[in-house]
Amino acid sequence: MGWQAIAAAVGLVGTGVSAYGQIQSGRAAAGQALQSAELELINRDLMAVQAKQSAKARLDQYEIETATNRGMFSALGRLDDPSMKAFFDAQDRIIGEDLKRISAQTDIEMTNVSIKAAGLRAKSKNVMRSATVGAMGTLLQGMNSWNQARPAEPKITPSTPPPMRGNQYRQTLLKRIFDTRG
User: Are 47 and 109 in contact (CB under 8 A)?
Assistant: First the structure.
């Protein structure tokens, strides 16, 4: 009977350790998901900087090409020609469209990264909830196992006299029979 109690106690301790391990595993996974979300947000900020650099590089390229074209057409004496004005107006529209395209593409990519980061934050919360629920289930299962494994206690009902040894039982019984005070 003693070894059963010890085995049940060891099982209960093991259950506690298992539940603790589940919580710690959940915390680690949640922390990893939060860290990944933070890295995604840093990546998003870097994308914004890269987009600004790309737009600036494109604009610098446009200004160099425009200066080259103006110099060439000026040397040819055609700078005031209406076709040259139309050409430069078309180049202005093209650079405007290029810069809008760079901005729109970056906005789309940054939105995707923000959505991914939000998903990782949600994953973090869900992993922690799952670990907590799993640990609670483990504890409840361990308590149930403890309940089933512990030694049975004698059940005393009103009709069953309390467990007494030898003479003590007889004396109590005689006292009940011959007690007339009540």
Answer: yes
